[in-house]
């Protein structure tokens, strides 16, 4: 059997790892930091390549997590909430934790300790399931809920991340969900290609909040070389477009990553950091500032659940 699961510590970081030994593929997850995706590595051109821009050690993780949010689970909201305030069901709420720019950002679970609740290995997959019960301990979100994240590694370097949000409280709750991984394919992003079926790009103001206007973004449908583009933008995806919702590629090597969803992540947020050695490709169920503009916000009744799924298909030069 080529699939297996291991527990280890690397550079001071405790990991749960899914393996496909037939391809030397390893998926690394950090349970105590929001069950984040820390690694997705395989052999490409004779070398082990981790396509996730990750934290090099525990010290860096502790220092940078709340600044970069690399690979974080974004829940109960992705991106920014203006001034950390919003109203729901006629009542105003203010988040305790704010980013330096004064907004609430990327939710509340990115540094929460998830529990491993299930592990399963078969001849065709390895699965690990993580759970966290949010105790309603931030004044800005006094709604208890359960977040269950399932990682599944399939043959051919296909990774599934499935999230189920359940309202465990006694009143309705607003919810948004997303992921914040940074992907790297070696070298600078300038030589990489990017393709996705955008219906439009949300216009942002200076605080990176949507203005309500939708701009054209047709050039991404046929694919572009990133070049010297600066990206910190959110796109509305074409729900009727077949195939991947995004493809990131490095033509000189033949390496690429295809992104697929179950339709529950209609927004795609892209960000290129100043070092330009990786790109954040964020599948979001809700637009930035969604508790205000209502773009993609989900309302869950008591006892109700919602499941959202994203797949990453890693294609090497040998198998693409």
From TrEMBL:
InterPro entries: Aldose_1/G6P_1-epimerase, Gal_mutarotase_sf_dom, GH-type_carb-bd. One of its GO terms (molecular function) is carbohydrate binding. PANTHER family: ALDOSE-1-EPIMERASE, GALACTOSE MUTAROTASE. CDD domains: Aldose_epim. It comes from Flavihumibacter petaseus NBRC 106054. This is Aldose 1-epimerase. It comes from the Bacteria. Its cofactor is Ca(2+). The keyword Nucleotide-binding does not apply. Pfam families: Aldose_epim (PF01263). GO terms for biological process: galactose catabolic process via UDP-galactose, Leloir pathway; glucose metabolic process.
